[in-house]
């Protein structure tokens, strides 16, 4: 299936909202408030590993499963799942009055910025085609494959601050103590990687270590925990792709394993993406787009990026979520932090954050989001309780939350 054919198909879809995993009114605006601006920072959909082999040869006893697209590209199955999210988002935005009930949005009412990877460009295109079928809304991005600093930060890491935050995130005993706490999961992951083999494979042999931040250089995780994060994400993507269970972890992984092992991926983000200074530095290119989306003329703004970008914003705002089937705070394929600007009868402006994602089972099935709406959770932003509502910020308060990322 070509992406042109797929785009034509999703443009015909119109998903209707309903009761979802987080409840029928999980995303309803608070009484007395209406939504007039929506900004989504969304991870791309399901992709294969970004390189082959995804970890050094010999760490897995068997060949890795094949994929229908090039390394790192959005798969047709992943695109179907993203298209269903776009249809559901469009239906909700029309119900809220953010988009017109019929017809296409006015020119400039929907702004989309994508990173230059194929998976982020294609994710934006599929989402747009389903959000507003037949409207041919363009996305803005650099040529495919050309680095875009908007999505990679400006490199202004302060090593002293970054390393102090990292030490706090790691806690007493250093990275060795963290690895020890994850020993049972490492053992299980090695069994999935190695099968009947008893030596010469697996990820746990290399001790975990942290390379500290330096001038213009972010800290880095190496060893067992780093490789476990990579493998855990591959297993999640295999499962989300809808591969037969005989191909998910070579038939040695269950859905329960996928959920449990995704804690490695969440751990890597907790250490390297969510600490406030690192999060702010990495969001330096994206934060102005978020502010413009909340204060400018566009009714809807989508930023089509990566799990790291979503984790950065989650860390900067200190908000948390857990998508069914995935570890807490692990950004799901197609999942998004949604920022909504709300207005009261006097014209006062507020902002709240939600996390919106299909569950892992919904991603796997790529089924219609009709009676089974996606997971939605209103996120409690610390320090915000406007109108007595926990997590609701005034617009000024929210801009102050983003201030560390605004250069």
Briefly, what is this?
By secondary structure, the chain is an alpha+beta fold. It folds into two domains: 3-154 and 280-405, Rossmann fold, CATH 3.40.50; 159-273, Phosphoglycerate mutase-like (Rossmann fold, 3-Layer(aba) Sandwich), CATH 3.40.50. It has 13 helices and nine strands.
Please tell me about this protein's structure.
- With 407 residues, the chain is α+β, with helices and mostly antiparallel strands.
- It folds into 2 domains: 3-154 and 280-405, Phosphoglycerate mutase-like (Rossmann fold, 3-Layer(aba) Sandwich); 159-273, 3-Layer(aba) Sandwich (Rossmann fold).
- The protein contains 13 helices and 9 strands.
- Strands 1, 2, 5, 6, 7, 8 and 9 form a 7-stranded mixed beta sheet that branches. It has a two-stranded antiparallel sheet with strand order 3-4.
- Strand 6 (336-343) and strand 7 (349-357) form a beta hairpin.
- Helix 2 (76-96) packs across helix 3 and helix 9 (276-282) crosses helix 11.
- The longest helix is centred in the first third of the chain and has 21 residues, at 76-96.
- The radius of gyration is 21 Å and the shape is globular.
- It starts with a helix and ends in a 5-residue tail after the last helix.
- Mean pLDDT is 91; it is low at 1-24.
């Amino acid at each position: 299936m070509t992406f042109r054919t797929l785009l034509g198909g999703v443009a015909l879809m119109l998903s209707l909202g309903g009761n979802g995993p987080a409840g029928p009114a999980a995303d309803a605006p608070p009484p007395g408030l209406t939504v007039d601006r929506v900004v989504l920072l969304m991870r791309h959909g399901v992709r294969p590993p970004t390189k082959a082999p995804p970890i050094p040869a010999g760490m897995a006893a068997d060949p890795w499963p094949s994929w229908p697209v090039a390394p790192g590209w959005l798969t047709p199955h992943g695109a179907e799942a993203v298209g269903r999210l776009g249809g559901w988002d469009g239906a909700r935005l029309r119900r809220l009055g953010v988009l017109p009930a019929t017809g296409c949005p006015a020119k400039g009412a929907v702004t989309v910025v994508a990173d230059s990877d194929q998976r982020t460009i294609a994710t934006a295109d599929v989402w747009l085609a389903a959000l507003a079928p037949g409207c041919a809304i363009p996305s803005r991005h650099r040529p495919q494959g050309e680095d875009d600093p908007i999505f990679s930060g400006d490199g202004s890491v302060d090593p002293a601050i970054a390393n102090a935050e990292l030490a706090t995130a790691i806690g007493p005993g250093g990275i060795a103590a963290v690895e020890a706490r994850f020993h049972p999961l490492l053992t299980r992951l090695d069994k999935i990687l190695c099968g009947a083999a008893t030596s010469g494979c697996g990820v746990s042999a290399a001790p975990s270590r942290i390379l500290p931040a330096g001038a213009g250089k972010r800290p880095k995780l190496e060893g067992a925990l780093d490789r476990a994060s990579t493998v855990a994400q591959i297993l999640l993507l295999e499962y989300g792709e809808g591969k037969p269970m005989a191909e998910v972890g070579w038939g040695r992984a269950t859905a329960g394993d996928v959920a449990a092992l995704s804690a490695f991926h969440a751990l890597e983000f907790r250490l390297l993406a969510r600490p406030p200074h690192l999060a702010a530095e990495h969001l330096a290119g994206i934060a102005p787009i978020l502010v413009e989306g909340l204060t400018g003329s566009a009714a809807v703004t989508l930023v089509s990026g990566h799990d790291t970008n979503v984790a950065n914003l989650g860390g900067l705002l200190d908000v948390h979520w857990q998508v069914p089937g995935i570890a807490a705070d692990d950004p799901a394929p197609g999942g998004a932090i949604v920022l909504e600007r709300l207005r009261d009868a006097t014209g006062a402006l507020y902002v709240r954050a939600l996390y919106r994602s299909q569950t892992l089972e919904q991603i796997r099935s790529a089924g219609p989001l009709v009676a089974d709406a996606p997971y939605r959770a209103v996120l409690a932003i610390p320090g915000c309780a406007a109108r007595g509502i926990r997590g609701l910020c005034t617009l000024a308060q929210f801009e102050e939350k983003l201030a560390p990322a605004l250069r």
